[in-house]
Amino acid sequence: MAEAPRPGQGPLHVTGEVLATKKAGAYRHLTITAPGIPQRFRAGNFVAVDAGEGRLARRALWIHRVKESGAFGPTLDVVVDATGPGTTWLADRPVGARLAITGPLGRPFALPREPVACVLVGVAHGAAPLFPLAERLRERGCAVNLVVAAPDEAHLLSALEARRSARAVTVITGDGSVGVRGAVPSQIAEILERADADVVYAVGPRDVLRAVAGAAEARGAWSQVALETPMPCGTGLCQGCPVPVIAEDGASRMVRGCVDGPVFRGDRLDWEALG
Known about the structure:
Layout: E1 2-3, E2 12-24, E3 27-33, H1 37-40, E4 46-49, E5 59-67, E6 75-80, H2 85-91, E7 98-105, E8 111-112, E9 117-123, H3 130-139, E10 143-150, H4 159-165, E11 168-173, E12 180-181, H5 184-195, E13 199-204, H6 206-218, E14 222-227, E15 242-246, E16 252-256, E17 263-265, H7 271-274
Parallel strand pairs: 9-10, 9-13, 10-11, 11-12, 13-14
Antiparallel strand pairs: 1-8, 2-3, 2-7, 3-6, 4-5, 4-7, 5-6, 14-17, 15-16
Helix pairs in contact: 5-6
């Protein structure tokens, strides 16, 4: 059904520069130079970015968009959700600030071999990697249905851009301020049925990912989910992001979320062990 991700050339460790910064709702969007990283990017990759003096652990950020050309050469856009000291420091970086960046990191999304109906589900800033994925799927002739969800309007990511990226868009907010009121788990089965989905991709909280994977399996669709889990180093060295998966023999074993993921087959994650 899907084309497995090809082995990459390995991550680069570079010093980037903030070229632009923009507040959008609850998030901060940064456009940065990262020599060599945009050229190696595949949808689902992330970068590990320095989070300020005195903080050893970097912050893992989804790559939201890659621009192939410009006055400064290829650049990448990341979305920062300022929820702690490290991400707040990153969100406050001004134009011209220098950042230590490692990437691209992680296992990207696998793409279908043939044109099929795809549903992409993103919750809050987790929707970021789905926009470049939608572009790749459209290039392959796939029908793309995009679901963007959040607790409220401020935490919706690029809802207007979503309408330019997909054949059909469903917007869900917990408070009903935009789109349909509710949550993804209670609506995903109907969405997949309506789209006649063959392949499903999702990024967001674990309860959402579990619901999406379960709904996909129930209708015989193939699913991939990208786990948002703390990744202190992003390169697998610290062993700080264990993820339980079901092996071919049916036994549960631990893998590293940053290098063996963050994208996993929905039917291979040990949801009970994940909690």
